[in-house]
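Here is an idea for our session: we take a single protein and study its fold together. To get us started, please write out a protein record for me. Once you have written the record down, we can walk along the chain together.
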Amino acid sequence: MFSFRTAGESHGQAIISLVEGVPAHLPLDFEFIDNELKRRQGGYGRGGRMKIERDQVRFLSGVRHGKTLGTPIAMMIENRDWQNWQDIMSVNAADSDAGAKRQVTRPRPGHTDLAGSLKYGHTDARNILERSSARETAARVAAGAVAKVFLRTFNIEILSHTTAIGPVRLPEGFAVSWEQLEAIRNDDTVRCVVPDLADRMVKEIEKGQKEGDTIGGTFEVIARGVPTGLGSHVSWDTRLDGRLAQAIMSVNAVKAVEIGEGVANAYKRGSLSHDEIGYDAGQHRFFRHSNRAGGIEGGITNGEEVRVVGYLKPIPTLKKALRSVDMISKDPFVAQHERSDTCVVPAAGVIGETMVALVLAQAFLEKFGGDSIQETARNYEGYLKQLSEY
């Protein structure tokens, strides 16, 4: 069973990612994996932390001579800012002065600070915020990059683009091409495929920076080459659209998820919402004349592109401080501002790609199995032959 776990704190020694279930003999593309981490750190409106960290993956286990062994893959990403936090984040017992440094008793609205502290019995919210920080997503991107390398062995590719930042958004019904997505793969501004709108998005971010505020938006993740038959209708927790929604919702600041044109379809008649079916005799395959369903019907992939949209709230750490209450004294205060971003939508799209890749890799291996990449390929080729015989 393909699975992954992450560990580590934002200002701890390192972020750790553990991936299990990857078949043996898969050649890994180390340059590609590090570039995925670089993409996560990009985007106009990012904060000072991105200037400190230059993320690279150090493989600790599960790989030999550039290929997977079929055993758990452990990866480490060092936190370069650790040298400034060694006393504050020490795993050993701290003296009273070190323990008091950077203590957080004033929870910030919109963060996990208060809810997490109450749940776990902490009076120092640093014990919560260090793990709930978006820094953890670096480990997810490392795991997702491995999943992407696996998926592209079977010609499945995943990319994303920014569809809105604040009020600036792509027009309804805009159809993005794969060539447009490829053109912005490594874009370091806002990763919008329409240049004029990209310029307006940058100006919107600059306006937010001047006003001491933050900005949300939306991104769309698209996976192409996904075969019919991943996921299942038989149980609530095997439906692939539900699994993708949960995965995208787990990304920091995401508050809503859409599959295909789910939001727009809610306001339309059925005759304008569903995808009519055709058959290509030359390719021996069924196809849809449109893709409003986002490539999933009844919890099962239907052979069209899988499309998922994430909706991000504006991040809650902002200079235009909001009111809160001290956890110990109960006195009201204006929330403290730490180093933060203005807009994270472009980076969130990269993290969204990661989560889609991890879910699709898991679903792919559930269906086709294989202890080695060669065995998985044989099983997959047999299935494709079966589909072509319909």
